[in-house]
Amino acid sequence: MTKKSEALYRIFAFVLIIAAWWVLSLTMFRQTGIIPTPPETVQIIREEMQKDSFFPAIFSTLQRSITSFIVSFLAGGVLAALSHFAKFIGIMLSPFIALCRAMPTMALVLILLLAVGSDLLPIVVAFLIVFPLCYENIKAAIAATDKKLITMAKVFKIPKLQQATGIYIPAMLPFVFSSVIAGFGLNIKVVISAEVMGLPAMSIGHLMLSARQGFNFGVSFAWLVIAVILALICEFILKRISRLCMPYKYSDLKTLKNAFNRMFAQKSNTARR
């Protein structure tokens, strides 16, 4: 499939979503006003942007999302590396990972609300939900590294740091960036859900629930649209970053092997001389 046809399919899917939204707002939800039409939603968003609480709420939610995801990613990466090279660590972590994956989000929010407070609640809840995803994806990425390349590096006594930067990182980057893009979108949703329950002073979740309690259903739906747009913008930025950071010369395994074969050959020739 060409890029042009792919773009056309994406545009067609977007038009279908807008059409379905418009139809639902004019039929099933017209009397209740729960879902306003797209033009009405745009107008509501413009009105919300003029309020002093608009941008502080967005930045506050985004800050919580970034903080919780960075902590989740770093903890997941470090523990995944340790569990790969020290199997007992992975065995000890497996019950905690299974518990985090099985725990309902809303129940977790209710339990932690009194323990950590409303300000830290979104960060803690998002960490417990996103951490297992980061841990398992990074661990799978490390395990998927070509064992032959690692064996060759050991045979030619390549330093550990060079093995990490030359073998593990290039092989892991595609998996890591895909997990980052998927995990950050989930992270934003969890943070906003926790904000709705915890009601921190300035947040998207707080404004969304306040509008709902005041029977301003259109405003609440508009904030839902804003949250979706925010998540899509973050996903777009992360994809651009992945394209900048991804080593295209190592985009496939064959190229990676050829590059290291040349490196090992050069090292052998140097040693013979």
Give the topology, please:
Blueprint: H1 3-26, H2 38-49, H3 54-85, H4 87-102, H5 105-143, H6 147-155, H7 160-198, H8 204-213, H9 217-245, H10 253-272
Helix pairs in contact: 2-9, 3-4, 3-5, 3-7, 4-5, 5-7, 7-8, 7-9, 8-9
Q: Which outline best applies?
A: globular
- Element pattern in H and E: HHHHHHHHHH
N- to C-terminal separation?
A: 51 Å
Question: What is the radius of gyration computed over CA atoms, rounded to a whole number of angstroms?
Answer: 24 Å
What's the helix count?
A: 10
**Considering DSSP H and I runs of 4 or more, what fraction of the residues is helical?**
over 70%
- Return residue spans where pLDDT drops below 50 for at least 5 consecutive residues: 248-253
Walk me through what this model shows.
It is a single chain. The protein is mainly alpha-helical and 273 residues long. Helix content is 84%, strand content 0%. It is built from ten helices and no strands. It has helices at residues 3-26, 38-49, 54-85, 87-102, 105-143, 147-155, 160-198, 204-213, 217-245, 253-272. The protein is globular and about 75 Å long.
Q: Which key terms come to mind for this protein?
A:
single chain; 273 residues; mainly alpha; 10 helices; globular
What's a quick, concise take on this entry?
By secondary structure, the protein is mainly α.
